[in-house]
Amino acid sequence: MVTRTRYRSPGSVISTIAGIVAAIIILGIVLVLIKANPNNEIVNVILDVGRFLTTPFHGLFPQDNPRQDILVNWGIAAVVYLIVGALLARLARR
């Protein structure tokens, strides 16, 4: 019997990681916008991870409303992660 090993290229791994990071950030944005209970452990963990992943983008475009600040700056972070991930994946596939 022959067993097959699934091999994922480095490019697809990079794309997957960038997608997961962007998804966590977007989920954090949604939780803030719908005013999810920050005392809930799941919400708290997602927001903590989102804060960590978006650290370089904090205060990039300051807004008066804290929820709008997260929407703008975290949204930019998610887009940057996706673009950089796509570029790195493309380089890795060469």
Average pLDDT figure: 91
Please state roughly what percent of the residues sit in beta strands, choosing from under 5%, 5-15%, 15-25%, 25-35%, 35-45% or over 45%. under 5%
Shape assignment: flat
* Number of self-contained structural domains: 1
Number of strands: 0
Spatial extent as radius of gyration? 17 Å
- Low-pLDDT stretches: none
* Fraction of residues in helix: 55-70%
Largest sheet data: none
Instruction: Assign the structural class, choosing from mainly alpha, mainly beta, alpha/beta, alpha+beta, or little secondary structure.
Output: mainly alpha
Order of helices and strands: HHH
Head-to-tail CA distance between termini = 33 Å
Number of helices: 3
How would you describe this structure in keywords?
single chain; 94 residues; mainly alpha; 3 helices
Description:
The protein has helices at 10-33, 41-53, 66-93. It starts with 9 loop residues before the first helix and ends with a helix. The chain is mainly α and 94 residues long. The longest helix has 28 residues, at 66-93. Helix 1 crosses helix 2 (41-53). Helix content is 69%, strand content 0%. It has one domain. It is flat.
